[in-house]
Amino acid sequence: MTTRRRQFIAAVGALGILPWRMAQATPAEAAEAIRAAVGSALVKNGKVSVQIPPLVENGNLVPLKVSVDSPMTADDYVKAIHVIAEGNPLPNVISFFLGPRAGRAEVSTRIRMAESQRIWVVAQTSTGLCWQGSAESLVTLSACTEMI
After folding, report:
1. In the list 36, 68, 128, 145, which could disulfide-bond 105, CB 3.0-4.6 Å?
2. What domain count does the chain have?
3. CA distance 134 to 14
C-alpha cells in the first residue's frame, strides 16, 4: 500500500512541474475575427469610442463602454458592433445588433480579459461602411485561464 501511495504522490508532483501556457489568441487571430465579422469591407479608423479602465485589478469583470458617432436614421445607422480581444482564448467577445430605432449607437457591458491587451471594436453601418476603434488595458489578475 505504501508503494501505491508514493507512486500517486510522485505522479501528482510530476503533473505540477509540467510546462504549460495560457490559451490565448494572437493579434493575427484577432484580425481574422474582424475579417470574419465584416467580410471584405474596408475598415476605417475613427467614429468609434472605446472606454475601458487603463488599469484593471481583476480581469473577470472589466467595464466596457462603446459609442459610435452615427445619425441613427432610417437610412444611416449602426447595424452591428463587434468587440474583439486579441489576448483572450477566443477573440470574439460579443456582438451587438442595432437598428435605427435604437436612438443611439451606444452599448456598455462587462467583459473578461485573460491578460493585458488591446480591445478592438468594429462598427458596421447600414450603408456598408465599417469603423473601428481600440483601447488598451493593463490587467493585474487574469481571467480566462484555460490550460492547453
Report:
1. 68
2. 1
3. 42
Q: Which domain holds residue 58?
A: 23-141
Q: Which runs of consecutive H residues, i.e. helices, occur in 17-142? A: 27-38
- Say which CATH number the domain at 66 has: 2.60.40.2470
| 117 contact partners, CB below 8 Å, separation of at least 6 | 85, 86, 87, 88, 136, 137, 139
pTM of the model: 0.79
Sign, CA dihedral 38-40-46-52, equals: positive
Beta strands 106-111; 117-125: pairing state: unpaired
Between 39 and 11, the higher pLDDT residue: 39
Q: Is the pLDDT at 139 greater than 70, yes or no?
A: yes
- As a whole number of angstroms, the distance between CA 124 and CA 81 comes to 6
